[in-house]
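step: validate -> pass
step: tokenize input -> pass
step: predict -> running
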Amino acid sequence: MGEHAPAKKAKAANGAKPESRLALVRRARRINRELAEVYPYAHPELDFENPFQLLVATVLSAQTTDLRVNQTTPGLFAAYPTPEEMAAAVPEELEEIIRPTGFFRAKAKSLLGLSAALRDRFDGEVPGRLEDLVSLPGVGRKTANVVLGNAFGVPGVTVDTHFGRLVRRWKWTEQEAPEKVEAEVTALFPKSDWTMLSHRVIFHGRRICHARKPACGACPIAPLCPAYGEGETDPDKARKLLKYEMAGRPGQRLSPPPDYPGKPAPPLGAG
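step: predict -> pass
step: emit ->
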């Protein structure tokens, strides 16, 4: 009860009746249902064929776009298809391949470390437990939840910048720290919803509910959003702010799922 007192106080200060816990749960779950209708094809936007590729791609995705990672990983996995081969890489050669993703020295150090750990401690296999994944160099809780949810089918919520921004706009939480956001949001939903909820919220953040100028006038969940009006409310102007398949443009994956309605992204150097 005490955890949600700040949100209640904030609403009361605005002259509105504080939202009850039950009303919050109902509104949150309705938003999830509405997003499921808007994004029935929501998926992880990193290209991968196995748990090791997803783990590596997720580490590389820090502070860059999934598109840039997807354009970089084909060459990376052609050179180092297994943890054993990546662990034995010449650091400078690995750095050069992943340079387009930024922070390439730190990322190369993480990839070498986690690959060696997989080789030495896990028989070259990516473990399917949270506590094992977060013990790997460069792997935090967010990365572990991505891998568990999408490579192993273990439910988890991925709190990236988009997810955190949207759930605070929706007043699901006022927390800033990712682990606290995760704890408060997971309490609103059954465990079976967690992984797909993450995809839908992140999709919505990338396509409609942008950081600087949300497309409020083109938002399908506007009636449920306490932050409606922070962005462009004129429908025609809002539609011009839409991104990726919502605007008829390519998504972030070079190899999107068969049901994805947008265009595949171009490979690196293709324009």
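step: describe -> The chain has a mean pLDDT of 94.
step: cleanup -> pass
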